[in-house]
């Protein structure tokens, strides 16, 4: 079953919040404000690095808030996460503007790409902190998209806060021919993997 230890989701993403709610966890949300600039080229390394930075940023804030209070020695868990799309090894994050989103969707049209989500769990057990970081990769194949379809989808505004300029869970899902791997991972958090990794971490204390 899901743990009763307080969880803090280090994220601004409404999708991650919805996913974690669906799993039945009780948690609070505290977005990170860490620097996300990086020269890392490999998608799996990049998402694990950024997930780790987000979790650590929030972990430190929680420790500062709790210092000197009776909550100081109570266990808690922080979860940070990061998602990117990779097409033939090229990383496609959130679009910087309209043209970037158009070009991204045009390049994904009729192709198979990978969606990587990194997850970092930091667990303070009342004495010490342990960290576990992993990633999950889902293969996604798109139908060919026409210019009109891309322009129409961009007009909805949906692509602009999403890695790869689409949401599989929204209208972007209409262009998805098939996936191999976890659907939740594409939306931003590989739930069943997270559940098992977290349980393993809590059992191994
Ligand atoms: C590919 C894809 C991405 N996404 C979203 C998930 C993430 O919210 C976003 C990738 O950006 P991220 O930088 O991973 O996350 P974020 O900035 O939204 O939130 P935070 O850093 O505070 O946790 O793209 C979808 O919602 N659906 C999809 O199909």
From TrEMBL:
Its main location: cytoplasm. The active site is at 82 (proton acceptor). It comes from the Bacteria. It catalyses: dTTP + H2O = dTMP + diphosphate + H(+); UTP + H2O = UMP + diphosphate + H(+). GO terms for molecular function: hydrolase activity. The keyword rRNA-binding does not apply. It is found in: Cytoplasm. Its cofactor is a divalent metal cation. CDD domains: Maf. Its EC number is 3.6.1.9. Keywords: Cytoplasm, Hydrolase, Nucleotide metabolism. The record marks 15, 83, 169 as: Important for substrate specificity. HAMAP family: Maf. Belongs to the Maf family. YhdE subfamily. Nucleoside triphosphate pyrophosphatase that hydrolyzes dTTP and UTP. May have a dual role in cell division arrest and in preventing the incorporation of modified nucleotides into cellular nucleic acids. This is dTTP/UTP pyrophosphatase.
């Amino acid at each position: 079953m899901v743990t009763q230890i307080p969880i803090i989701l280090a994220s601004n993403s409404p999708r991650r919040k919805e996913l974690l709610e669906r799993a039945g966890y009780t948690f609070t949300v505290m977005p990170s404000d860490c620097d996300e600039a990086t020269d890392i080229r490999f998608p799996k390394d990049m998402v694990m690095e950024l997930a780790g930075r987000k979790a650590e940023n929030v972990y430190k804030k929680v420790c500062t808030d709790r210092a000197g209070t009776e909550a100081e020695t109570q266990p808690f868990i922080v979860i940070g996460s990061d998602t990117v799309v990779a097409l033939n090894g090229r990383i496609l994050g959130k679009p910087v503007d309209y043209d970037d989103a158009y070009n991204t969707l045009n390049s994904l049209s009729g192709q198979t790409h990978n969606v990587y989500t990194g997850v970092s769990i930091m667990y303070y057990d009342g004495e010490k902190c342990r960290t576990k970081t992993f990633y999950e990769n889902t293969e996604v194949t798109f139908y060919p998209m026409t210019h009109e379809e891309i322009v129409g989808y961009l007009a909805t505004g949906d692509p602009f806060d999403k890695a790869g300029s689409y949401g599989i869970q929204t209208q972007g899902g209409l262009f998805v021919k098939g996936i191999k791997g976890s659907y939740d991972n594409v939306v931003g958090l590989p739930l069943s993997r997270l559940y098992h990794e977290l349980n393993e971490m809590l059992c191994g204390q």
